[in-house]
Amino acid sequence: MIEVCCGSFEDGMNAYYGGAKRIELNSALYLGGLSPTVSTLKLLKAKTDLKIICMVRPRGAGFCYDENEFIQMKAEAKDFLENGADGIAFGFLTNDFLVDKEKTSEFVKIIHSYHKEAVFHRAFDCTADLKKAIAELITLHVDRILTSGGEANAIAGKNTIKRLEEHFGSQIEILAGCGINADNALEFKNYTHVKQLHSSCKSYKIDTTTSNGKVSYGYYHDNEMKYEVVNCDQVSKLIHNTQ
């Protein structure tokens, strides 16, 4: 399974045209991915047969949420699930870098009440002990984790991902992501034996109105006038290379 990380309706359509079968739908990818809009989900469901996992993340930074944020996140999850989402990607940690079992358990129960998939995202990679964390997530009935093996990217974390797949892959789905592209996907898959890969397949488009004089709304560090989009050709190449 190739899951493509998408930040917009355009991204989702490009992933679909490139041959993807499942996407993780976000907004604000430059912040690591925030919750998308319900309208984006509904448009993609109407125009494609994609399996869509919606991110539920109310802000950038970390994953230790207060009660108001948690209330918002539960409301967003229900909105997505009631409008066709096939699963929810989320992550809850305590201040001491442990899985927040109470919030995670409640979220899993909400998601499973709709008979959809509960996916713990790369908050997993910020935990103090990956083996302890994955064991807890299995106990909490999480369906899948997205991980780079606790490293900055999955290539650097490939040995850990390989061990996680060997020891826990029969109990929970392991989705490897961050830094995987069409050039390294096949070698990575063959080495780790993971059955699922996550990639943004991104390229950049220019919007000349992003910056004018002293005013700028850019975030791309090399050229403020660019923004990320999913590259259809990269999706197709990634899928072809891993089949």
Topology, element by element:
Layout: E1 2-6, H1 9-17, E2 22-25, H2 38-47, E3 51-55, H3 67-82, E4 87-90, H4 101-113, E5 117-120, H5 130-139, E6 144-147, H6 158-168, E7 173-177, H7 185-192, E8 196-199, E9 202-206, E10 211-212, E11 215-216, E12 226-230, H8 232-242
Parallel strand pairs: 1-2, 1-8, 2-3, 3-4, 4-5, 5-6, 6-7, 7-8
Antiparallel strand pairs: 9-12, 10-11
Structure description:
This protein is α/β, with parallel strands linked by helices and 243 residues long. 36% of the residues lie in helices and 20% in strands. It has 8 helices and 12 strands. The strands form 3 sheets. Strands 1-2-3-4-5-6-7-8 form an 8-stranded parallel beta barrel, surrounded by 5 helices. Strand 10 (211-212) and strand 11 (215-216) form a beta hairpin. Helix 3 (67-82) runs parallel beside helix 4. The longest helix is centred in the N-terminal third of the chain and has 16 residues, at 67-82. The protein is globular, with a radius of gyration of 17 Å.
